[in-house]
Design brief:
57% of the residues lie in helices and 0% in strands. By secondary structure, it is mainly alpha-helical. The protein is globular and about 40 Å long. The termini are close together. 14% of the residues are buried.
Length: 97
């Protein structure tokens, strides 16, 4: 079975979330910054913003993010967030087989 969304498609949908929520276009962010903490000096998001991202991701992608993923910092970076979304989508796909 083919992946539900490619990594690029996930990146595009996540970018839409960031544009709509924070006015931040991920297309303008350097690739090396995708591994920087969202609460750090590059993105300057507040902790509550991670909660908004969490809720937006669950709604947009139709996934449930496990609590342990949040406490382990999976939403701390853009790449970590994309990896988490892709892994959750893959689990949904595997459960459907």
């Amino acid at each position: 079975m083919k992946n539900i969304l490619s990594r690029q498609s996930v990146n595009e949908k996540l970018s839409n979330i960031f544009i709509n929520r924070f006015g931040l276009d991920l297309e303008t962010v350097a690739n090396e910054d995708f591994d920087r903490h969202l609460l750090g000096n590059v993105f300057r998001l507040a902790p509550r913003d991670l909660v908004y991202i969490y809720m937006d991701i669950e709604r947009e992608f139709g996934i449930s993010i496990p609590d342990e993923a949040v406490t382990n910092g999976a939403l701390a970076t853009i790449n970590g967030t994309i990896d988490l979304i892709c892994s959750q989508l893959y689990k949904i796909e595997q459960d459907a087989v």
